[in-house]
């Protein structure tokens, strides 16, 4: 059971991308969902979280005001709209699920994450 990320690519600084995340098999409806990112040599970091019903969202400080996480419950898909991208946003982006938003915010090492890590989607922002 995996979550499949898509939508990454190469974009110039100041540009936008929209990432998508959907399960390959079982549904994660009823769970909080989160986006994480990782650059080579660094730990995977929490980026954004959304509650099971979309009512609550949270972001790491570095993306507040630029990134927006949403979910389409009917389509069982989570999105990350990324605007005003900078080279510092370059990373592989992953999604995962957890029973609560706090479990997602704990970070990529949280024992409460529900899915094995997928392959992620590469986001590259050029200067």
Report on this structure:
- By secondary structure, the chain is mainly beta.
- It has 1 helix and 10 strands.
- It has one helix at 101-105; strands at 3-6, 9-12, 17-23, 32-38, 45-50, 57-59, 67-72, 77-82, 91-98, 121-126.
- The strands form 2 sheets. The protein has a 6-stranded mixed sheet with strand order 2-10-9-4-5-6.
- The N and C termini lie far apart (37 Å).
Overall shape: globular
Which class best fits the helix and strand makeup?
Answer: mainly beta
Helical amount: under 10%
Low-confidence stretches: none
In whole angstroms, how far apart are the ends? 37 Å
Main beta sheet: 6 strands, mixed
Estimated share of beta-strand residues: 35-45%
Rg computed from alpha carbons, rounded to a whole number of angstroms: 13 Å
Strand order of the largest sheet: 2-10-9-4-5-6
Number of strands: 10
- What is the average per-residue confidence, as pLDDT, rounded to a whole number? 95
Order of helices and strands: EEEEEEEEEHE
What's the tally of helices? Answer: 1
């Amino acid at each position: 059971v995996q979550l499949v990320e898509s939508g990454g690519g190469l974009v110039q600084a100041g540009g936008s991308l929209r990432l998508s995340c959907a399960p390959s098999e079982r549904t994660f409806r009823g769970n909080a969902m989160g986006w994480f990112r990782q650059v080579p040599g660094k730990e995977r970091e929490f980026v954004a979280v959304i509650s099971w019903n979309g009512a609550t969202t949270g972001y790491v400080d570095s993306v507040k005001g630029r990134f927006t996480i949403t979910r389409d419950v009917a389509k069982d898909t989570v999105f990350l709209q990324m605007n005003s991208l900078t080279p510092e946003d370059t990373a592989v982006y992953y999604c995962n699920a957890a029973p609560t938003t706090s479990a997602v915010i704990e970070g990529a090492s949280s024992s409460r994450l529900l899915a094995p890590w997928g392959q992620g989607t590469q986001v590259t922002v050029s200067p």
